[in-house]
Amino acid sequence: MYFSAELKNRIDTIVSEHETNLSALLPVLREVQNKHGWLSKESMDEISEILDIPASNVQNVATFYTMYFTEPVGKHIIWQCRTLSCALKGAEHVEHYLCEKLGVKIGETTSDDKITLMEAECLASCGTAPAMLVDNTLHENLTKAKVDKIIEDLKNE
Ligand code: FES
Q1: What is the Å distance from ligand 1's center to 1 Cα?
Q2: Which of 68, 99, 128, 156 allows an S-S link to 140, with CB 3.0 to 4.6 Å?
Q3: Residues forming a β-bridge with 120
Q4: Average pLDDT over residues 53-78
Q5: Is the distance from CB of 78 to CB of 133 less than 8 angstroms?
Q6: pTM higher than 0.90
Q7: Local structure of 25: helix, strand or coil
Q8: What's the rounded mean pLDDT across residues 22-49?
Q9: Does the pLDDT at position 1 exceed 90?
Q10: Residue 81 in contact with residue 98, Cβ under 8 Å?
Q11: Does domain 76-155 correspond to CATH entry 3.40.50.1980?
């Protein structure tokens, strides 16, 4: 077994809260990702065994949703909105600035493994565009100064 007893117990609880094992798949994937940071093949294989769902189905679901990571990612994830309102308010400039500042392209992780930069569709904060999500925190009305402060805080953690 690859998972800790604690994680296995948490998965059992999630399964008990759902009518079918298939309906527990998304929250189980989220739980495992929260614990391990990403979903390795070993993790997905173990989820497959626990839920008695074919491994290919687990992998298909994990790779379909952008918020599941099937490759290692940084400690923090920046989701930079690229949708219309943010685009009209300069998201492209914010993205270029982030890439330059972090030394990465979209989808890449900084060399210190601290930050992964991703593109996102609308974050439901169009009125305060441009916006980005850092882990679970929304940052709005982005400027270079705000981006500088956000990155500085993340790097100092
Ligand atoms: S378009 Fe960026 S938050 Fe809606």
Answers
A1: 42
A2: 128
A3: 81
A4: 96
A5: yes
A6: no
A7: helix
A8: 97
A9: no
A10: no
A11: no
Which DSSP state fits 65?
A: S
Q: Which atom of ligand 1 is nearest to the CA of 130?
A: 2
Please provide residue 138's backbone torsions phi and psi, each rounded to the nearest 5 degrees.
-85, 135
In single-letter form, the type of residue at position 3 comes to F
Crossing angle for the helix pair 25-36 and 41-51, to the nearest 10 degrees: 140
Rounded mean pLDDT, 23-31: 98
CB 31 within 8 A of CB 11: yes
CB 126 within 8 A of CB 85: yes
120 Cα to the center of ligand 1, angstroms: 9
Ligand 1, CB cutoff 6 Å, lining residues: 81, 83-86, 122-123, 125-126, 129, 131
DSSP-derived 3-state class of residue 152: helix
Residue 4 in 3-state DSSP?
coil
For residue 153, the model assigns a pLDDT of 95
Q: Which of 148, 59, 61, 72 has its CA nearest to residue 110?
A: 72
Distance CA 94, CA 97 (A): 5
Kindly state the average pLDDT of the residues 10-16. Answer: 98
